[in-house]
Amino acid sequence: MSDASGTPVPAARVTALDATRGFRRTAETNWEGRFSLDAVPPGEWTLHVEHDGFTPLGTATFPLSIGQVLIQRLTLSLKGVATTVEVNEQPDALEAAATTASLALGGDRIEEAPALGRNYLGFVALVPGLTQTATGGQQRSMTGIRSPLADSGFSFSGVRARSNSMTIDGLDNRDETTGGNRVAVGLEMVQEFRVAGVSAGAEFGGAAGGLINVITRTGVNQWHGDATWFFQNELLNARKTEVDSERRPRFRRRQPGVSVMGPLRRDRTFWAVAAEMEEESAQEWSETPSWAVDRINRVLAQDRTVSSGLYPTSQHGLDSTFKLNHQVTERDALAFRYAWSHGRALGDVQGAENFLDRSAAGNSLTADHSLAATWLRVITPAMVNEIRTQYGRREQRLWPNGSGPLVEIPGIVSFGESPRLNASRLETHTELVEQWNLTAGRHRLSAGASVHAVHFDGRIANRFGGVELFPTLEAFEQRSPAMSWIVRGDPRTRMTTVPVGLWLQERWQVLDHLLLEAGLRYDKQSLPSGLPQPPGNWSPRLGLAWRPGVKTPWILRAGFGLFTDRYPLAYLNDVLQKGSGQATEYVRYGLGPEVAARWAASASFPAARARKLSIGWERGFGSSSTFHVELNLVRALHLPRVRNAALTLPPVYLLEQTARSSYRGLSFSYNRRVLEGITLLASFDLGRAWDDASDFDEHPSQPANLHADWGRSRLYQARRLSISSIFELPFGPWVGPPWLQAALENWTLAPGMVAGSGRPVNTLLTYDPAATGAYPVTARPTGMLRNTGLGPASVSLDARLMRTIPFHDNRMRLQFGAESFNLLNHANAVRLSEAYATPAGRLSNWGSLIESGPPRQVQLFMQFEY
Fold first, then answer.
1. CB atoms within 10 A of CB 756
2. Where does the pLDDT of residue 84 fall: very low under 50, low under 70, confident under 90, or very high at 90 and above?
3. Which domain CATH number covers 326?
4. What is the predicted pLDDT for the residue at 460?
5. Cα distance between residue 69 and residue 99, in whole Å
6. Based on the domain organization, do 73 and 191 belong to the same domain?
7. Chosen domain end from 56, 91, 126
8. What pLDDT, in 10s, does the model give residues 131-189?
9. Which of 10, 119, 262, 783 is least surrounded by CB atoms within 10 angstroms?
10. In a shared domain, residues 706 and 844
11. Which residues, in sequence order, are CB contacts of 96 under 8 Å at separation 6+?
12. Helix, strand or coil for residue 137?
């Protein structure tokens, strides 16, 4: 705060007001004319400034997004004729107080753009430096899962997709067993979310990957809500490339929803509730080759059969969220949220990385609950305390379509009970987080602690039904397996793990154009008894933001940090189950005798860690647009994997924290807020991701030589382009006949595209010549490196066309239209066949398509807003 001559104005009274909710925060400028308001909730805010001898000053309404630090420079004028000075300029689009780049998405960008399954996580694909995993390509629903080990669906800077931090209202929402997302929040309840691949803030921990932080909506003084209806039918859709049928597969989907938000007491108490249902009736393709059906069924001799063709599947989901906000006093605010989701997928949960007969697929039932509360206390304008707590509960059951051992003939088909599709589990979460923020002059100090207790009670019967691996169809006809596995005993396990975090962070505005950020975080996770207890980890964080001058339109950023991850419970479960004596795994090589395998955890069991360096340059264009270039160098160490420490049979399966990954990437992005009816977000990435194991169940091909597997990661994607745009028609000054302007008025066009270069394809043998006991098999032909092949490029163009009819002075709106996903009907590969060679020679269908993403789909919709 300064006067017209640039002299700082101390003791000015500053009031920030969110008129939609009546929220008010006050502060006073110090001797440098500086003021600070901490922990201000996202929303639409104005500032009002008063000082004796000066004309009161007010600003126009400006948006404040989640995690944003906004710098506003204001000039007071000496008292004159005017009673109030209005500042109508919007804040600079350049975030001068951010040491690392992140992207906030909300408002029209998620409400008016096409979203497959109305899943807000689909918009995460627009973020620079990201690649999607197979889970991201398979998932069609927020509530139901189509993979027994479903991860988050996204990899940031080559770090595994199980390692991301996903939070709702600042509280953890990660599935501790698989690393996926827990409770589903409908699109109508999402106010906005911020995504970052690297963050210098020490308060962010417990994950080595990226950060996805969602803020849910609150009610305001004006009642508002909506009713929505989305509908699909196969008559408007294309068919998948891999579906070899003359009939168009059935695909019917409907998704109604409703939301109501408003005040219980104006300026004090607000509530918001939203619910959404989804129902899907479809057909999927049983992938047994037609030429192999009779040959396989002759061997099975009517005990069970395989088939080729369409079979029925279905999906049902429901999510509901209720939120209550109460402003107790100007200093104290309370928030309560309850979210519940339930999803069921029948017939189409994917069970193996091979062509699947319908018997090898399965079913899932998932139910989630989350009860959360927050207390924000403004002790003084310079000191804020926030306490957040949550109780969460996830119940999940998986069951197979078929029975009997899984028979796997790589490159041909898998049929029978998939080993991971016989499971049930209950996972409960109890979490407490407290954070203090203190501002003193140019310094802002943050300190906090978190405790998160997770209890697991489950029955994961992985390979309890048996697995038989045949190198060729002829070997199956001769009943001559290359390898077989079966587990006998009690599959039930119970475990409790408690991650604890402590952090201290300082932001120091050294000069008006130089910001330094330094923090230290401590993470310690206690593991269940029977496992080695890992040491605690200290993680330093450093950040810098330099802008040569107050009005310079560009800024240079740099951030560095160490990030400690948690252990996936699905990874730990094998040792607790098979290493404790309650169950034993038996392995057979060829037609030889069964030998008992041992399971154990390595004596050295450090937590996975990522070392991240980010350097970026950003150019601002007024209050509307920015262009950003960022270099990311990320190295992850101590990643979980399984290795046969005995090198051969009988195996000693050892859980080890020895895998590693490396990523180098350069991203370019352009972000334009709504201006003259146009909103645009575009990014282009160049990246190189390498590792020696892309997931915890990927065994090394040579257990005695881990370096032999260093190569392209499954998460490798050399180039990636994403574009999202919204056009409010007609935009800009109109030049043309009035009748055409009237015809185009109140139409919205929202096209978007994600395209990328091909993903790696491994070259695997259909058998295990070294008898390492690895499953899934990881053996490769001699001299061939891991993941040397590349699949086809991917392109997905989505678009929405919507007409808005306003009435009652625009207080109510009827909207209708159509949206299309994968408009070009490009066959985007989700899974490709990696079976490269049998004992008899190379397979001709190596690299062929097993599963593609959704084909072209057209969805009709109608919604009423008030």
1. 21
2. low
3. 2.40.170.20
4. 97
5. 10
6. no
7. 91
8. 998 776 556 677 889 999 999 999 999 999 999 999 999 999 999 999 999 999 999 99
9. 783
10. yes
11. 71, 515, 545, 547, 555
12. helix
Q: Looking at the structure, tell me whether residues 680 and 796 fall in a common domain.
A: yes
Burial code (b: 16+ CB inside 10 Å, e: under 16) for 506-545 equals bbebeeeeebbbbbebbbbbebbeebeebeebebebebbb
Closest Cα partner for 69 from 105, 37, 46, 106? 37
Query: pLDDT category, 645, cuts 50, 70, 90?
Result: very high
Does 727 share its domain with 810? Answer: yes
**Two tokens at 681?**
């977000």
Residue type, 500: V
DSSP character string of 701-738: SSTT-GGGG-EE-TT--SEEEEEEEEEEES-SS--S-H
Instruction: Give the amino acid at 313.
Output: T
Q: How many domains does the chain have?
A: 2
Tokens at 761, concatenated? 């394809």
Helix (H) or strand (E) holding 322: strand 308-327
Q: Which domain holds residue 789?
A: 104-865
* Average pLDDT value for the chain: 93
Structural domain includes residue 429: yes
* 67 has a pLDDT exceeding 80: no
Q: Are 91 and 539 in contact (CB under 8 A)?
A: no
Residues 112 and 78 in one domain: no
Residue finishing a domain among 91, 119, 151: 91
Is 99 inside a domain boundary? Answer: no
Closest CA to 561 of 500, 518, 509, 501: 518
Q: How far apart are CA 145 and CA 812, in angstroms?
A: 36
